Amino acid sequence: MHGGGGGGWWSFLRYDEKKDQPEVTMALIRRVAGYARPYTVKIILLLGTIIGVSLLSLIPPLLYRSLIDDALPNRNLTLLNLLALGMIAVPTLNGLLGVVQRYWSAQVGEGIIYDLRRSLFAHLQRMSLRFFTHTKTGELMSRLNNDVIGAQQAVTGTLVTILSNIIAVVATLIVMMSLEWRLTLLSMSVLPFFAFAVRHVGRLLRQLRRKSLEYNAEMNAQMHETLNIGGALLVKLFGRQRQEVAKFSEHSANVRDIGIQQAIVFRWFFLGLGLVSAAGTAIVFWLGGRFVLNGTFTVGTIVAFGTYLTQLYGPLMSLMNVRVEFVTSMVSFERVFEVLDLPVEISDRPGAIELDHVQGHVRFENVSFSYTEEVEGIVSGLEDVERFDWSARFRLPAKKSGPEKKEEAGEEEGKPSTSFPPLPQWAVHEVSFEILPGQVAALVGPSGAGKTTLTYLLPRLYEPNSGRITLDGHDLRDITLEFLANQIGMVTQETFLFHDTIRANLLYAKADATTAELESACRAANIYDFIASLPDGFETLVGEQGYRLSGGEKQRIAMARVLLKDPRILILDEATSNLDSRSEALIQSALKPLMQGRTSLVIAHRLSTILASDLILVMDQGKVVEQGTHNELLARGGLYATLYNTQFGDK
After folding, report:
1. pLDDT at residue 625 greater than cutoff 60
2. What is the largest CA-CA distance in the chain?
3. DSSP β-ladder status, 440-444 and 615-620
């Protein structure tokens, strides 16, 4: 429900509890406790400070009673001095213990937030490319920040409060019972009214909390998409500033309205609890006053008892609200665990190996892959994750929630007209070919033919739906992902550089590379002279996504980075349609050392690359329709001959 719509905040008060009951199970609590287990000693120390603070808080009312009943009536100056010192000493000790308590609480809380965030980030690093193409980056940022911090607050805030209040209530009741058992029982008679208020508001606040996190995630997603350099450029080029502001205003309004709803519901909730507490206090003072008038009580005792009532009802109100706060705070843990429980689509098989020596012999054997075919047990992105459920962890949706990811802009939109079951749209279908060690294979074909998808399958960015890919006779799934990544270097058309120095971007390939190695790689990629001409040289910041550099400069830095990595297999998209002739010539000369002695798979756009290749793979509609050398394919007069005559016939 959007905060700005329909019935306003009071519509939540008509919320049917049965539709969304809190699901704080022992399984969830045990899992949360698992993150606290490494901090057991610190938690024990924290508990000790909580007990100390609670016991010290019981002393002031007894000091008041002694002052009123003994020191003042008996004009006992010595006792008066001691009581005055006690009134200073107790809050001082309480404050010092509070500092220690906060220290241990921060130790535990910040430790847990570190562990949660690290686990979440590490799990996201293992997710396949499919997951990231189906998920907004802003939503992931929200899980890593807002939800993790919410989970930390549940431990250091809610749980500490629960322990403090339980100890305070028990200790206060013991002292009150020793003073007057009848008044103590009377003060407890209002408990059912506390429980009534909590029961009818708890589930409502939990739903508001989940909605608040969802709205914040939507707002974060838009900010991330439109405030990075690529998004900001697109907004300006299409003049969509007004529309984006309107969209952001809507997201912000949702966040604002849900915050207002939470504030109002909380205010009404605590108003009710306050009235119940006031009624209980009034009844106790009325009856206690009668006891004083009858001589059963001393004035000091009723004053002390009244102070203890305040110390009892405050923690008691918090404890009655524990279910509300605890269940609400568990929403953050639920959302974190939703991501942590997402299965990893591409991972190392048990017993995966590292090869002693890589020759670079690549084979595709009847390989098929579809972006749209549902993979059993795999959730494509966060939008496919349903409400967290401990009985099923996650469930695949019955229907897709949005358009599927296509391989590239030219992918066909049409779907088969067969009614049931629908046929998958194969991006790559029954592809078979072989590249011998050291050979260069050129991929050619019209846009949307499946060329990019094919290059994504070799480094296992995606997993084939059927068939297999081998390296030196070993199925890629039998080789560890880390080892495979170290053997493959990839230069994509859209080069990505971190917002860091040129040196840092190059060292991403080899962290321990020397300056001499950096310079050698840059010379081979024809980028060294440009770097040397910069005032800061290798320490020059490249800007967000490398936008301070030209397209050709970014590509040559990417080539230098791959040369520094020194992989056995090279994957290259050599498109240079957006480059000037000089940059294209520099890149063309940089390709020679880049492909030297390496098995290369190149999406070829230049005639020189196609002619220099050992094998040409002609793709159309996801299939390799022709393969062979340039002369062989021309002689056949097929698709390659048509493409050649169309694109290169006059060259």
Report:
1. yes
2. 122
3. parallel
CB 112 within 8 Å of CB 151: yes
- Non-local (6+) Cβ contacts of 617 within 8 A are 433, 441, 442, 443, 444, 624, 626, 627
Stretch 629-646: mean pLDDT, rounded? 89
Q: Answer whether 441's CB lies under 8 Å from 612's CB.
A: no
465 three-class SS: coil
616 SS3 class: strand
Whether the pLDDT of residue 575 is over 60: the answer is no
Closest residue by Cα to residue 618 from 597, 608, 604, 606: 604
Nearest to 149 by CA among 184, 169, 178, 120: 120
Cis before 421? omega within 30: yes
Neighbour-count burial of 249, counting CB atoms closer than 10 A to its CB (0-12 exposed, 13-18 middle, 19+ buried)? exposed
DSSP code string of 437-480: TT-EEEEE-STTSSHHHHHHHTTTSS--SEEEEEETTEEGGGB-
* DSSP conformational letter for 638: S
Residue 92 predicted with pLDDT over 50: yes
CA–CA gap between residue 239 and residue 246 (Å, rounded): 13
Which of 90, 88, 95, 70 lies closest to 80 in space, CA to CA? 70
Percentage of the chain modeled with pLDDT above 90: 18
Q: Domains of the chain (ranges plus CATH)?
A: 9-340 (1.20.1560.10), 428-647 (3.40.50.300)
Give the pLDDT of residue 366: 95
Phi, psi of 560 (to 5 degrees): -60, -40
Q: Which residues pair with 169 in a beta bridge?
A: none
Strand 466-471 and strand 569-573: the pairing is: unpaired
Tokens of 92: 């001082």
Dist. CA 399–CA 419, nearest whole Å = 15
Given phi > 0 = left and psi -120 to 50 = alpha, else beta, which region is 445? left
| Residue 89 pLDDT greater than 80, yes or no | yes
Helices 160-179, 322-340: axis angle to 10 degrees equals 160
Tell me the per-residue pLDDT of 465-492, one tens digit each, with 9 for 90 and over: 999 999 999 999 999 998 998 899 888 8
237 Cβ neighbours under 8 A, 6+ residues apart: none
Residue type at position 353: I
Rounded distance, CA 77 to CA 145, Å? 58
d(CA 39, CA 264): 37
What span, in angstroms and rounded, lies between the C-alpha atoms of 140 and 225? 12
Quick count: other Cβ atoms within 10 Å of Cβ 408? 14
Q: Which of 111, 162, 163 is nearest to 326 (CA)?
A: 162
> What pLDDT shows up at residue 7?
38
**Mean pLDDT across the stretch 286-309?**
80
Q: Would you list the DSSP string of 303-350?
A: HHHHHHHHHHHHHHHHHHTHHHHHHHHHHHHHHHHHHHTSPPSS-PPT
Kindly provide the b/e burial profile for residues 567-582, where b requires at least 16 CB atoms within 10 angstroms of the residue's own CB.
Answer: bbbbbbbbebeebeee
What does the pLDDT average to over 546-559?
83
| pLDDT band at residue 556 using 50, 70 and 90 as cut-offs | confident
Across the range 6-17, mean pLDDT stands at 35
Q: Model confidence at 331, in pLDDT bands (50, 70, 90)? A: confident
**Residue 204 · residue 14 · CB < 8 Å:** no
Sheet holding 466-471: strands in order across? 426-435, 362-370, 466-471, 474-475
- Evaluate if pTM is beyond 0.85: no
* Cα 240 to Cα 137, 185, 217, 232, distances in angstroms: 21, 67, 22, 10
Tokens 């798979």 sit at which residue? Answer: 601
Copy the structure tokens of residue 568. 């056995």
